[in-house]
Amino acid sequence: MTRLVRASGALVLAGGLVASSVSVSAADTAPRETPGTQAGADFTLTVLHGNDPESALLHASAQPDFGGAARYTTLFQRLRDAENAGVGAGADEAAERGVLSVNSGDLYLPGPEFSASMEEGAPFYDAIATNHVGYDAVSMGNHEFDFGPDVYADFLEELTGDTTVVAANVDVSGEPRLAALADAGRIAPSAVVDVAGERVGVVGALYPELHSISSPRDMVLHDVVGPVQDEVDRLTADGVDKIIMISHLQNIGYEQSVAGRLTDVDAIVSGGGHEVMADADTPLVPGDEVTAHPSTGEPLSYPLWASDAEGADLPIVTTGGDYKYVGRLVVNFDADGRVSSVSDRSGTVRVSGTGDDAVEPHAGVHGQVTEPVSAHVAALDETVVAESEVALDGTRDPGVRTQETNLGNLMADALLDTGRRNAAEYGVPEPQIGIQNGGGIRNSSVIPAGPLTALDTYGIAPFANQVVVVPDIPRAQIKELLEHGVHAAPAANGGFMQVGGVNFAYDPERAAQEVDADGRVVTPGERIREVILHDGTVVVADGEVVEGDPITVATIDFSARGGDMYPFRGADFTVVGATYQGALEQYLTGTLAGRVTAERYPEGGSGRIVVGDEATDPVTGTLELRRAPVRAPSAAIFRYSTDSPGRDNHVAVFAEGVSPGAEEPLTTRRARREWGHVPVSTHPLGAGTFTAYLLDGDGRVLAGPATFEVEGG
What we know:
By secondary structure, this protein is of the alpha/beta class.
């Protein structure tokens, strides 16, 4: 076990053991010499590791010559053979040696590539790839539960029996399918692996706030340190003197904070953060950069050194994920099972298909995974669902996690649209507001103007989130939801709220709302200053809630269940028959009739969310002439849309320069739906220039004016 104590002392921690509360001194993260012993090494353990493959089965994003499960498998197996044979071993390494193969979770991610596995009769392609790699143990990740525990159980049943899922702080007894796998030894707090005759313990840990970011249903999660230490102590008492922790805690700073409270752990393999950890001369996948440490800003060299509870050196390692790198941690142990050194050969090895470090794709993975998944994705990419006049912004920071974007508006409108269309079928009120968390928009890029494909919709909305309607939320709670949506601003946060059906203004200089894990407000927020529904209803004025009827919300089940700690507080909700990806595709093909216009979704947003004290006056719809010129006696055909559909909505035509209310319209035509086409007869008009408006039953302007000419027949 690790017992070497470095002179600089124990890791300094501040705050609780949560991912957002890690404070580490610069001295503790600076690169330094690896400890060593005069006696040399008795056994060398190479830990080959991966994390967060996330169904990037074909290749790295925007880099077809790098990554991919087939190349990754070839590289992993080649490194395993070389390490077992001692190829390139340093003078500090032992003749007795072996390899441990692990992965720290997120073995799949809902999205276009994973959707190939959801076709009827298809296998889990990610499981096939995992089996070919041949891990000794894997950790659970958060994305494994995005489709719920039963799909995860289906996936695990396709893994080979030699791979154990380890999670010391997770109780799966409330989920029968997973409980059966635990009874069979497939899921366990730890695993003991025979590595060249040495017993190596592998202990797992999963992010304890999993319910706030995924859908584990009746699984129970505990804090990390106690359960992990209990399992380490049990292994130690059983004579296991080499122990590796593999964990999925969402960012490496969390693992570093946990390290300071553990003993007898020899190395930690981290997952969930996608940090790129490498030395200055390590080749990286083009476009990647070494990640800065979240507390110090220093580049993360490999490994990151922490101190355990006794002040002993403890290496922490990770890779960038997405099948882009294989991590290689070479740890030397003395005869008593104590770490004597970490070899300088340790580091990340990129998965390349070009250049001096190129590897050929693994034949089995290529045939069984790459080819069928490629065909599935190609079919999605050939299916055009809409044409966009504008570039759609799904970038993260600045972007959907910090501010309004037009793609955020499009997603929120899609939820609202599905909620309204399906409300009667599912017996719920029509929602007035759509809420989409920025973290659920995952394309992380600007989609250029032009064709949008089915593949694009999966890239934007990859998860298994269901559209839900949450009826009759009190207005005070609506304000709390909006407060939570901007509580972290201007910092990027996955809970930042993209909205439909409502405009609001907030002041980031005012007090931010704080909620507990159950969504109860412990510190009221003062940031939300004004809220106006798109039907003109004022919900908040001058920071105070305006009394009135409750409001119905369309959102995703992830948020309604309290994901991102949204304060819905167990409010009843109804799933209304669509995933959020399906809602987006239906909205594009149906409601928008295959056109995303610059008028409705301007680049930079339409002012739904503004910084300040006054919300933008709602513009609730669009109205445009479909074909010009208009020649009498043909009808003038208008395309319209509105966030305020109603039985008495109508298109009204006035003489040029006449506004609604000043005179009676020359002619009208009903427009009761949320969108559609309305033919307006030119018989009452004659030749000339006219102005059309979309009005509600009270004569309020919902869209327009649209000025047009009628030519004589």
